[in-house]
Task: inverse folding
C-alpha cells in the first residue's frame, strides 16, 4: 500500500526584510550578481525567496547596474 505524503516546503523569508535593508543599491554588484543566473537573467521570486516589494527594487537595481556596465546583459 502506498501512503500519500504531503511535502511541506518551508517558506523562504526575504533576506532584505530579515536584514532590515531599506535601499537596494545598484553599485553593490557583488550582491546583485547573486540574483542573476548564469545566462544573465534575473532570477524569479520563487527561487530567491524575496518579497514582491524587494523583488521590484532588485530588478530596477540590476537593470541600472547593467546600463553602467557593472553587470553583463548576457553571459558570453
Result:
Amino acid at each position: 500500500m502506498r501512503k500519500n505524503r504531503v511535502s511541506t516546503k518551508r517558506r523562504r523569508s526575504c533576506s532584505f526584510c530579515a536584514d532590515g535593508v531599506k535601499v537596494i543599491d545598484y553599485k553593490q554588484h557583488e550582491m546583485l550578481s547573486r540574483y542573476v543566473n548564469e545566462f544573465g537573467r534575473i532570477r524569479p521570486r520563487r527561487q530567491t525567496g524575496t518579497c514582491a516589494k524587494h523583488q521590484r527594487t532588485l530588478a530596477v537595481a540590476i537593470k541600472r547596474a547593467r546600463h553602467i556596465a557593472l553587470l553583463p546583459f548576457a553571459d558570453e
User: Anything to note?
Assistant: The mean pLDDT is 90. Residues 15-67 form a domain with the 30s Ribosomal Protein S18 fold (CATH 4.10.640.10). The two ends are 51 Å apart (CA to CA).
